Amino acid sequence: MERAVDNRSSGPSATRGNLEEMLAANRAFMAERRLQAMPDAPTRKLAVLTCMDSRLTGLWNEALGLQRGDAMVLRNAGNTVAASDDVLRSLAVAVYAKGVEEIVVLGHSDCGMTKIQASAFIDAMSRAGVSRDAIPSIDFREWLGAFAREEDNVRDTVRAIRESGLFSPDVQVHGLLLYVETGEVRAVQ
């Protein structure tokens, strides 16, 4: 089956998919650049939990003045610990195996998780052929990690990390909100 032509100048061509484009970009990257070895522990003893929103790629770290190797990064839909222990597990690894002393929960404006509709999401899964048996019968909005306000979600996530019992009070946990329209970052209290 042929792919539709992508008219965006930065998108994959009509004859090559994303995988081929990324591998070609890597070959060009490797021809031009040699990376220096660096430790696997973050140099700033920092972990950042942020959203998987594609608008944040390349923006959040620049907005916070962070470079490659400065922080361990976790990304998920809505920068949340909702419905999963995986984020807490990963943060525990960052703290106890990699020496992280500070955790930042970085939310952002215009987050899609404030707009997601559980019923429409379930319908989309069903239309794609996902069996109803595979779709959790729990509160789906909660399972998705949906929320009404970005600031409240950052506060709730910071609280969940602090109250998890997995981290000593010496581990600092902060909440920040990045405005995708401007790049401004504000502390969330």
Core attributes:
189 residues; alpha/beta; five-stranded mixed β-sheet; 5 strands; disordered N terminus; Beta-carbonic Anhydrase, Chain A
Task: Walk me through the topology.
Blueprint: H1 18-32, E1 46-51, H2 60-63, E2 71-76, H3 86-98, E3 102-108, H4 118-127, H5 140-144, H6 150-163, E4 172-178, E5 185-187
Parallel strand pairs: 1-2, 1-3, 3-4
Antiparallel strand pairs: 4-5
General description of the model:
The chain contains six helices and five strands; from the N terminus they run αβαβαβαααββ. It is α/β, with parallel strands linked by helices. β1, α2 and β2 form a beta-alpha-beta unit.
Order of helical and strand elements: HEHEHEHHHEE
CATH fold label of the largest domain: Beta-carbonic Anhydrase, Chain A
In CATH terms, the superfamily of the largest domain is: Carbonic anhydrase
The residue-averaged pLDDT reads 88
Helix content: 25-40%
Describe what is shown at a glance.
The chain has 189 residues and is an alpha/beta fold.
